[in-house]
Design a protein that fits this description.
Order of helices and strands: HHHHH
Structural class: mainly alpha
Largest sheet: none
Number of domains: 1
Radius of gyration: 15 Å
Length: about 100
């Protein structure tokens, strides 16, 4: 997966660390905050999981305040996500 390759991994981790800070302040996980942010964009995310505990955790409705949404938006403008979403061969299958 291009975004997890050694040459871009640390750069992409900056975004994760920023979201983790918001999550820590809320007493929630970074995944829960990320899911809540996606929902604020008008999208219903369908996160995958390999355990019942994680499904329950990710299904908890987390409310983000306007300033938290704005903070994540500022982070996204500041931190460039590097690497493609998926390998080119996989992307070609969906075109």
């Amino acid at each position: 997966m291009p975004r997890f390759q050694p040459d871009v991994f640390d750069d992409n981790l900056l975004l994760v660390r920023a979201v983790e800070g918001i999550a820590l302040n809320k007493g929630k996980t970074a995944a829960q905050v990320a899911i809540a942010w996606v929902m604020k964009q008008g999208v219903i995310p369908l996160p995958g999981s390999n355990s019942v505990e994680r499904v329950k955790e990710n299904s908890e409705v987390i409310e983000l305040k306007d300033d938290e949404v704005e903070e994540i938006d500022r982070i996204l403008k500041r931190v460039e996500v590097k690497g493609g979403r998926a390998p080119p061969m996989l992307l070609a299958m969906y075109q």
